[in-house]
Amino acid sequence: MTNANKLVRFGVSLDGQLLRRFDAFIGAEGYTNRSQAIAGLIRKEFVSDIFAKGGSVAGAVTMVYDHHKRKVVNKLLEIQHAHRGIIISAQHVHLDHDNCLEIVAVKGSAAKVKALADSLKSVKGVKHATLSVSGDGKQ
Ligand code: NI
Q1: Ligand 1 centre distance from Cα of residue 100 (Å)
Q2: d(CA 65, ligand 1 centre) in Å
Q3: Is the pLDDT confidence value at 1 over 60?
Q4: Quick one: which of 10, 17, 109, 135 has the fewest CB in 10 Å?
């Protein structure tokens, strides 16, 4: 472990009511202690900032669609081929007779990732699509 990664203790003063709300919030989120929760929330803000400023991110586009809808599969494949530079992998799950779940893992600039997600979710026949963004691991 390098010096920069060493754990550093610091004191935080908070309004008592705010701290009680924070503890209830982080408990519901599944954090087991305040240090872990604060580090997680700081990283979350960093990822939002990187995304807003167009930095490098990793994430996934998750979508559900009815593969019977006209040309939906071809359109989704065309879009993915056009964005192959930022697509790491794709997983396709046959949910039921009609519906497919597809998870497209991505890594690249925030602008390119957002453009891909917007293109996929705008295809007619896609019922639901979300973009989940994480840092690229360097944060
Ligand atoms: Ni399918």
Answers
A1: 4
A2: 9
A3: no
A4: 10
The side-by-side arrangement of strands in the sheet containing 87-94 is 87-94, 99-109, 56-66, 126-135
Q: How close is the Cα of 106 to the center of ligand 1, in Å?
A: 20
Mark 66-84 as b/e (b = at least 16 C-beta within 10 Å). ebeeeebbebbeebbeebe
* 9 CA → ligand 1 middle, Å: 50
Q: What is the pLDDT of residues 22-72, one digit of tens each?
A: 999 999 999 999 999 999 999 989 999 998 898 999 999 999 999 998 899
* Cα 14 to averaged position of ligand 1 atoms, centre (Å): 51
